[in-house]
Amino acid sequence: MGEEHFVETEKMKDVQEKLEELSKAHFVLVHGISGGGWCWYKIKSLMEISGYKVTCLDLKGAGIHPADPTTLISFDDYNEPLIDFLSSLPENEQVILVGHSAGGLSVTDATHRFPKKVRLAVYIAATMLRNGFVTEQDVKDGAPDLSEFGEPIDVYDMWFGLGLEQPPTSAVIKTSLQRKIIYQMSPLEDSTLAAMLLRPGPIQALKSARFKEGEGAEEVLRIYIRTAYDRVVNPEQQDAMIKKWPPQNVYTLESDHSPFFSAPFLLFGLLIKAAASLGCSE
User: Fold this and answer.
1) Given a cut of 90, is residue 234 above it in pLDDT?
2) This model's pTM is above 0.70
3) What is the CB neighbour count within 10 angstroms for residue 154?
4) 3-state SS, residue 225
5) Catalytic residue, candidates 31, 58, 101, 170
6) Statement: residue 271 has pLDDT above 60
7) Active-site residue flag, 141
8) Is 257 a known active-site residue?
9) For range 31-43, the mean pLDDT
10) Among residues 112, 230, 256, 262, which one is catalytic?
11) Does residue 282 carry a pLDDT above 50?
């Protein structure tokens, strides 16, 4: 009886140690185009209450970052805040990178550059392309196609930082269409907040995203979280990217493009489950 009690106690200690180690995991959350670190406010609250460390970055020209997104035409320039952040981490520190929508490009770029600093890469309704936009098929799979909602001029407000004779450098979905396209299952107060905070996204910079595959990048564990009712990166596009570059695990949320608003508790649970199931507590 005493020996059995000792074994059970040791098992409980082992579980407790693993849970404590997992709670030390550092999640770095990366927003999509036009968004900012603010979009993660529900997830950040849930994680921090549960003891996790969370960083919500603003990429250049997004959120409260002072740069003018209309002037950005280079993806490296746009993604500089994430790269600088990872560069500043101690050599032995690893993070769990989470990218939403176009934030998936930022996550992939980071895994090529800093594979030893990324323990897990999580893509949420995100563009997951091994080398970025290299081929026409990459664009078809990874770039939003909103043609069902009208011509680009009817769907987007656009800015022409290089002149009217050149393609637009930044754009944002018109306020009147944002709820219908991005937040159709989200609480009204969240889509209202988003309408007040969204900024033009540097579309030329994103189109230029191409990555040279870094040594060790393929060893970074990846998770994809599908969004079943997504009108921005539709399920067919998500499935095409998953098939082309299979991650270790795929989960599905019954949500719109913005599960951090429409399904925050389920998304939080999946992020913790993904981290635990792939050994981030070891």
Assistant:
1) yes
2) yes
3) 10
4) strand
5) 101
6) yes
7) no
8) yes
9) 98
10) 230
11) no
